[in-house]
Design brief:
The structure holds two protein chains of two kinds.
Chain A (H helix, E strand, L loop, with lengths): L3 H27 L7 H18 L6 H17 L16 E5 L16 H6 L3 H12 L4 H7 L4 H25 L1
Helix pairs in contact in A: 1-2, 1-3, 2-3, 6-7
Chain B lengths: L2 H9 L2 E5 H12 L8 H11 L21 H14 L1 E2 L16 E5 L2 E5 L31 E11 L2 E10 L5 E8 L19 E7 L2 E8 L2 E8 L2 E8 L3 H8 L4
Antiparallel strand pairs in B: 2-3, 3-4, 5-6, 6-7, 7-11, 8-9, 9-10, 10-11
Helix pairs in contact in B: 2-3
Classes of the chains: A mainly alpha, B alpha+beta.
Chain lengths: 177, 253
């Protein structure tokens, strides 16, 4: 029979194999100018993880937990005194086209729309308003930003998150039958 | 709103973002509690930001980073760190902690440790018998009253000792840490070069009391590197101007 230590050890190894590349990428993105510190943060994150599973058992969502610890570590170490110091190259004006990694051929099916009312009804009021502006009134992101007292970038991001969330809910419904 | 809206949403195939917006999108996700983080979205953003996604977006390559020759030292130091301290992390997000910017709260299993900087608890000079951590090898400010040694850790791997000393200042925003590599046997082959990110826009070599000292600076972050007494010192100074770092470097040895 496996001891708790052995179980934890297997869990740790599995988590390292699966999630270490993502944690390293996050560090690379956030700490480009201090590459010598990246190993330090990646190691810290997984050492905290080892401590966590030893003391409290595995977190509910290991990947999310690791991302959060890494993000906190980066902020704690390098964004001191609430003064956000940027440790990365400023981005150029490259425009990237971002797709959805949850698109599904079954989204074309007419039978999906039985859930439309329920899905839309359960959204927060602000999201409903955003959908109205975009899909019913046909307003541009800039116009919506002005109406919602926000920025164009924030509206775009909110729209992306919202559509992604809805696609995921629909996909889950399909899978549940 | 009806099924036509849902249809339009499901047919939305892609959105155009700038790279900065993608990073903001990711940050917003990472600000949430772990239970609410959409890890697939974070993965997607990271793929875009590190340009290794094959199809959904245009290619963009980040500048290559020079690998630090002795990165393993940092890993070793970090390995030691967790044995001593579990700093506030995702597990502590449920706590409402309202303390001043100068107060460090650390979580140790089921209790917090709050250091209030009333007195110096760590005596660097006597910390490691046989290892000269004194004004002979370190800059003077580390031994002055306005410098508080927050933490000190060490680890021995393959006979080499790795020491990390964290400090903060009482009278300024400057803080940072020193990594000291004490090899079992010093060899020129192992320590014949220093690599550093090209982000450090200023590099200055000094000769301080016979020690070759290199000062690197980028904005208000500086690194001072030097070898003395067969040990490698790597001093990271945050919130520190280049001129101040040079002044500090001139007090070594």
């Amino acid at each position: 029979m496996e001891t708790i230590y052995e179980e934890n050890h297997s869990l740790f190894k599995e988590a390292w194999k699966k999630y270490e590349p993502g944690i390293r990428k996050l560090c690379l993105v956030k700490m480009q100018s201090i590459p010598d510190e990246i190993e330090d943060v990646v190691s810290d994150v997984f050492l905290f993880f080892w401590k966590e599973i030893q003391e409290n058992g595995p977190p509910k969502c290991i990947q999310a937990w690791l991302y959060k610890v890494a993000y906190n570590q980066i902020n704690r170490r390098y964004y001191n005194n609430n003064r956000k110091v940027r440790y990365t190259e400023p981005y150029d004006d490259t425009v990237v086209v971002v797709g959805y990694d949850i698109d599904d051929a079954r989204f074309e099916s007419e039978t999906l729309f039985q859930w439309a009312d329920e899905i839309i009804e359960n959204l927060p009021q602000e999201d409903k308003l955003l959908m109205k502006y975009i899909y019913e009134d046909g307003l541009s992101m800039r116009e919506i930003a002005a109406k919602m007292d926000s920025t164009e970038a924030a509206v775009k991001q909110r729209h992306y998150r919202l559509t992604r969330k809805i696609k995921r809910v629909v996909k889950e419904r399909i899978e549940q039958g | 709103m009806d099924k036509n809206v849902l249809k339009k949403i499901l047919k939305t195939k892609q959105v155009k973002f700038s790279m900065a917006e993608v990073e903001q999108l990711m940050d917003a996700e990472l600000e949430k509690d772990p239970e609410e983080i959409d890890t697939e979205l974070v993965d997607l953003c990271l793929q875009i930001l590190t340009s290794d996604s094959k199809d959904n977006h245009s290619e963009k390559t980040l500048p290559k980073l020079k690998k630090f020759r002795y990165a393993k030292i940092l890993i070793a130091a970090a390995l030691a760190a967790v044995l001593l301290v579990l700093s506030l992390s995702a597990t502590a997000d449920k706590y409402d902690i309202d303390v001043s910017g100068n107060t460090i709260v650390q979580k140790f299993g089921k209790y917090f440790r709050i250091k209030i900087f009333e007195e110096r608890e760590i005596n660097l000079r006597e910390s490691y018998p046989g290892v000269d951590l004194s004004e002979n090898t370190l800059p003077d400010f580390l031994f002055e009253d306005n410098c508080v040694i927050i933490d000190q850790k060490s680890l021995i791997t393959n006979g080499d000792m790795h020491i990390r000393i964290e400090f903060t200042m009482k009278d300024s925003k400057m803080n940072g840490y020193v990594n000291v590599d004490v090899p079992e046997e010093f060899s020129l082959e192992r320590y014949h070069e220093i690599n550093i990110s090209t982000k450090y826009s200023r590099i200055k070599e000094l000769n301080v009391n016979g020690i070759r000292v290199f000062v690197f600076s980028e904005d208000e972050n500086c690194i001072i590197k030097y070898f003395t007494k067969d040990m490698l010192f790597d001093l990271h100074l945050l919130e520190c101007e280049f001129e101040k770092a040079v002044e500090i470097a001139n007090t070594i040895g």
